[in-house]
Input
Amino acid sequence: MSDRIEKKVHLRAPLERVWQAIADSSQFGVWFGVVFDGPFVAGTRLVGRITPTQVDPEVAAMQKPHEGKTFTFIVDRVEPMRTIVFRWHPYAVDPDVDYDSEPMTLVTFDLAEVADGVLLTISESGFDAIPLSRRAEAFTANDGGWTKQAELIKKYLVGTSAS
Output
């Protein structure tokens, strides 16, 4: 097992469009499957409420059992057109667990322009600090989750390219 998950996805869209899809909390929510209680601003603590993604019915069905669950999302850093970084409790789905007493992992979205679009690198690190009793499960769930999310942002950008 590793302390870090990393996914790369090539997005055939202009940098500005990709940036809006990850930096605007409303747009992020459409593809990711969450509604936030505010915008992504560095230093802000937000509450997200899970709501099924609007871009893929199969993934939406997987998210449906978790609909309405809330989680804390802390925006660490926003570097326009380059990076957005946040912290959260990974795989925080058990209502009987007090996740606030656990460390958070660090999630980074990095953008790099390439010849025919943008290379988005999504990374999550800090799993070694998660309690051993749930570390492997959180890592495995989020590893698969980030694979799905990379597909979802791609579908979102294709579906909204005329916007």
Remarks:
- The beta strands are 4-11, 34-36, 45-50, 70-79, 83-88, 105-114, 117-125.
- The radius of gyration is 15 Å.
- The helical segments are 15-23, 25-32, 57-63, 132-159.
